[in-house]
Amino acid sequence: MIDDVEEIRAEREEPVRYREVQGKYAGLWKQIAMGIVAAYCAIALLTTIGWIIAAKIITGSLKLNMPW
Prior knowledge:
mainly alpha
């Protein structure tokens, strides 16, 4: 069996095209937006719980036992 090594090439036929620099941060705005929405929801939930507790204290339906 005869090996034809002259047809073997180390180079690629087409040059490798690298991603552009723009693609590096393409999804960053989505992560920032999701972070803002998640933080808003968390703060809104904590504020609602705080207002519910404050309303119960003001109306007197929640009794606080002081240790003194």
